[in-house]
Design brief:
CATH topology of the largest domain: Rossmann fold
Number of strands: 28
Largest sheet: 7 strands, mixed
Helix content: 25-40%
Number of domains: 4
Number of helices: 23
CATH architecture of the largest domain: 3-Layer(aba) Sandwich
Structural class: alpha/beta
Bound molecules: iron/sulfur cluster
CATH class of the largest domain: Alpha Beta
Amino acid sequence: MTQHRTLCPYCGVGCGLTVAPGSGANPWRVTGDRAHPSSLGNVCVKGATIAESLACDRLLYPQYRASLDQAFQRISWERALDLIVAQIRSILADHGPDRLCIYGSGQLQTEDYYVTQKFLKGHLGTNNFDSNSRLCMSSAVAAYSQSFGSDGPPCCYDDLEATDFAFIIGANMADCHPIAFNRFAKYHKRHPGVKLVVVDPRATATATKADLHLAINPGTDITLLNGIAHLIAQMGGIDQDFINHHSCNFEAYQAVIADYPPERVAAVCGVAIAHLEQTAQWWVNSQRVLSLWSMGINQSSEGTAKARTLINLHLMTGQIGKPGAGPFSLTGQPNAMGGRETGGLAHILPGYRSVTNPHHRAELETAWQLPPGQISPTPGKDAGEMIRSLERGEIDLLWIMATNPLVSLPDLHRVKAALHKSPFTILQDAYHPTETTAYAHLLLPAAQWSEKTGTMTNSERVVTLCPAFREPPGEARPDWQIVAAVGQRLGFPGFDFADAAAVYGEFVQLTAGRVCDLSGISHDRLRAMGPIQWPCPGGMEPQTHGQQLYQDLQFPTPDGRARFIAVHSGGLAEPPDPHYPFVLTVGRLYGHWHTQTRTGRIPKITKMHPQPFLEIHPRDAEKSGIAAGDWVVVRSRRGMGRFQAEVTKAIAPGTLFIPMHWGALWGEDTEANALTHGASCPDSKQPELKACAVQIERWG
Ligand code: SF4
């Protein structure tokens, strides 16, 4: 029986899957791939049910309408490509390339990302490519770049089973990265001396497994981390040798943390002094300390500073560059990492290069055979700026690929109004309807998982080949082929790739000598030996797992040293006040991903999470006259939603929680992002999706 080895297309854990023909209602049988180094044969409900979403509500052929009040009409691919080319030519002639934008996705494969960067940033000469990774981990990118001199998570999953102390902050791994968390949870259970601290305003499934849960007040992460640093220094836990030889700016940091005595930190964060001391003690006493973070840190108006403050703790204690130690960001999307490698954000270029670096631009202009100066030195529009530009009438063509911004972007009513003003919106996706198809003029059917061949990189830098083993339905095509076809019609050279392997081969050569060196990886090699972890320079024996970055403690900064940040917290962008007295936080549920475009179409998962809800502390519920099961109207300055109350001590007083994956397609007034705001981190431009001020009222 033919079996196919591939990757789960949901989250950044990147579990290996084995797919075999099934029968009857389940034509494909999906199990965990025991040979995959990241997941070791394990798989969660999302990966296990992926095949059930393949035939539901697929976009089968191109469709077009001249305005949003018209119905879509089926058109041919020829006509669709002609329409795009005509639009682009006219925009270039009238206004230049900066009125073109592409908004992509961590669901794209590396080949899709690469061809799109070459097309837009190279040949069209605008950097207006951003992706939903902006909402997910751009603060981690900025933090690594500023602290270490380059993007690149230094750790790997083997560290989960080699650490003495895991410090998880702003990540509900048990629900959102379950297979990576299970690796640690099993190890934790077998080794009672290993400690786990979880920092989260909610008593999540992750927090319930912790030796100590620090239920901090929302937005007090930097205060907490500076306070732990204060105690570590007081306990004599600093690694002076590392600080002297491998870092800079420690003196400024030392001056900052002196202002964080435990009494003050405990009062601001809402945690006990004894718990702060216990955390610092475990950090100091442990040979190997691993910290893990995700959206709870990244999605903040000070997300970069938060992540860097966490990295500070590793620098001051020398907890980096050795097994079981280091700061480890967990990516949300399955190929957010591949997006970073290929330059899939508005300020970067393939190979962890920067658009503002003239040397980097010149390297790509040479490789892509472009005239000098063709690549713009100006960072393009990030996701938030695309919306603001639409409002101002400064975008003439918006091309959205494999994502659903009409659920996932903050301040959703504003986003909807902006999209209404878009003169020409292309949506290239596998599914129809989604909340975003309602705002598109042109729909392009995209092939997805199992229907196209390409690669994805997971959170621990492991690259997996995802082969096509089924025909795409209808007229769906791989995303990279659609972009390449437009490039060829515009007369651009270098888009006549024979196949996805040729695309990958061209891309990896551009990474040679970079931190993310993938030049020793090819489709053939991945097919022959299975997943490969980078760095993997050409000529090097490929490793499948277990490689840490910075083991020599040399960082890719001009002086080879990592940088401390010395910073105080600015607090929440929208703190609670007498009119909006609660902080609303949002998060994922175990069975949900990708705004339910797939998971909303799988009966087992919809039964698991039938409707959204509001978590409220018993004290707040009583004060507001709300009982368990009551319907509650939640209002922010931007919008409202209606949710049934779950009265629980799992949420801290003053804080409310709602799940974030319900869009207009799945329920009325259930959109979390109707409430959130778009204030973002000045460095990473990542919005503060995790906290906004709201008021509540019992409904009905
Ligand atoms: S943990 Fe993530 S990658 Fe693994 S099976 Fe679940 S959704 Fe897929």
